Structure formats: C-alpha cells, structure tokens
C-alpha cells in the first residue's frame, strides 16, 4: 500500500481534569493521578499509604474549592481548549486523517478513545502528547498507558510517538505571538514558569551522575536532550530571543512544588525576590502548558498575584497558554504531516 493512502489516526493526549469541581470528582481525579508511579515515583506500598491515606483525603476538599474558581460555563478550560484544538486541527488536516483526543487521567480516557480507534482499523496511529518538554510524569506516562492498552490488541497497527517538541519553530512562534499582545518593556521582569518536578526525576534521565552535574541551564546536547530542565531553559531562550528580551530581564522558574527537593529556582521565591528588588509589574509565561488550567489561571493568575502584592508588588500578568491559537494549530499540523 502506498504510504499516502494509509488510513491514519492521530491521538492527542493532555493531562486531564476532574469531571466536575465536586469533591467526589476531584477526589477520583487525584486518586488516579497521584497513584501513577511515574508521577510519585516511590515504592508502591509507601505511595499507596501517602496518596490514599494522607494526600487525597486532605487535598481533595481544598482542590475542589480551587476548581470551582476555575470552572466556567464551558466546563474545565483545559478540556474545552483541548477539544477546540482537536476540532481545529481536524479542520486543518482535512478528511484524510482523523484526530481524536484523550486525557491521561479521567475523561475522555485513553482506553475508551483507543478502543474507538481500534474499531476504525487504522494502518497507522500517531500518538501526540501535548507536553512540549519531555518528562516521565507527563509524556512518559501517557506513552506508557498507550502501550499498556495497545499491547492487548490482536492487530497492532503501525505506531509513531511524538516524544517532545519544545524546539519546534511554530511552537516558539505561537508563544512569541502571545507575548507580543503585551508591552514587555512596561514590565519590570519576565518569569518563564514551568511545572516543577522532583530533582530525582530529572536525575533518572542520566545513567551516570546527576542533573546538577550538567550545564542544563545553558545548552541542550546529546546527553541531556530528554532532561526537562534543559529543554525548559532551551524553550525560554528561544522565546526570549524571538521577543528580544535581554537575558538580565527574565528568569526561568518552576512552580507547584511539594517540597524543597524539586527543581529550582522556585517560582514563589522568585516572585518574592523580585518584589524585594522593587519590581511592581511581572509578566508570566507558562510554556509547559499548552492549555490554560488550574496551574496557570489559579496558581499564577490568583495565587502569585496575592503573593506578589503581599511583598509590595502590584501586578502579575499571565500570558495566556497556547489554547486554540492559530499558530499552535499550524504547529500540530506540521508535526502530524511530517509523520504521515
């Protein structure tokens, strides 16, 4: 069969969201999410005790309050924008390629969507996790779950996995276009905030030594090309260059930490430091997130705003995530077309 005539499906995967902001739905989401051994990578018995006995029971009611703030008439922003991305990518690709969407946690679930795709009898399926920088807890977990499901199929089609795309020119261009909506010179400092990870998880990328032994803040090379820290810094350099932001005017930071053994600099501490230096206006990019969610709208937009004000600052301005931006759709189209 000619390659161009192959029946091809694309599976977009995002992280996931509770079905509603009810405590019961948030509890169910957190239970699935935090029991993933790629998210909390500690011995299974300890993880079950920690997650099911301590974290989920105590965190679910508080998280539900945060999700209530996040929820809109269209539901979860992450799910809404992911669905919009799917529909617009489908429209851009035409009828020759079929696009589906699944969430790693909760709905639409990877097993349910893959079962639908199995029945379509595709010659090839392209698996595209919507996480620009590779991390075991995101890309790795999504890909592993796809393997788990498809490994049980009697007929396994040709598969292609997109590991990361942090350096794709259209991804960088999309964030630069979003940044140009704001007069960057009016802000005292720019912070590029990425979701944090325990340092042990980036250390596992290397067969020998630790992440801190490498020059991940300065370059991506053959050894560290799958290091989340290295690719986060590389993403930042590319966006800053596209927007002509001088090196002294921006900082890379990592948010959502659970303890002090996570990637540094910490975003919350960076905000306090900037306020103490006299900064009044901060501009926040969140390039690890391709759709706005709890971590962008609530954690940065509300939580970091309050933190900044507490220490003498005035305004934290969040640059929107890619959501359904036209250049982002073109980026995904290019990724797919290069694999058909």
Throw out a few tags for this protein.
single chain; 340 residues; alpha/beta; Rossmann fold; four-stranded parallel sheet; 11 helices; 8 strands; globular; EC 4.98.1.1; lyase
Cα distance spanning the termini: 13 Å
Bin the strand percentage.
5-15%
Overall, the morphology is globular
CATH topology of the largest domain: Rossmann fold
Strand order of the largest sheet: 2-1-3-4
Number of helices: 11
Number of domains: 2
From the coordinates shown, what is the CATH architecture of the largest domain? Answer: 3-Layer(aba) Sandwich
Radius of gyration: 20 Å
Uncertain spans, ≥5 residues at pLDDT below 50?
A: none
- What structural class do the secondary elements suggest? alpha/beta
Largest sheet: 4 strands, parallel
Write down how many β-strands occur, each being a DSSP E stretch of 2 or more residues: 8
On the 0-100 scale, what is the average pLDDT? 97
Give the C-level CATH assignment of the largest domain. Answer: Alpha Beta
H/E element string? EHHHEHEHEHEHHEHEHEH
Give the topology.
Blueprint lengths: L7 E9 L6 H12 L9 H27 L6 H17 L3 E9 L4 H11 L3 E6 L6 H15 L7 E4 L7 H11 L9 E7 L3 H5 L24 H15 L7 E6 L11 H10 L4 E5 L8 H17 L4 E4 L7 H12 L3
Parallel strand pairs: 1-2, 1-3, 3-4, 5-6, 5-7, 7-8
Describe the fold and architecture.
The protein has 340 residues and is of the alpha/beta class. The chain has 2 domains: 3-164 and 326-337, Rossmann fold; 182-318, 3-Layer(aba) Sandwich (Rossmann fold), CATH 3.40.50. Helices cover 45% and strands 15% of the residues. The chain has 11 helices and 8 strands. It has a 4-stranded parallel beta sheet, with helices on both faces. The protein has a 4-stranded parallel beta sheet with strand order 6-5-7-8, with helices on both faces. Strand 3 (124-129), helix 5 and strand 4 form a beta-alpha-beta unit. Helix 1 (23-34) packs across helix 2 (44-70), helix 3 (77-93) crosses helix 11 (326-337) and helix 6 packs across helix 8. The longest helix has 27 residues, at 44-70.
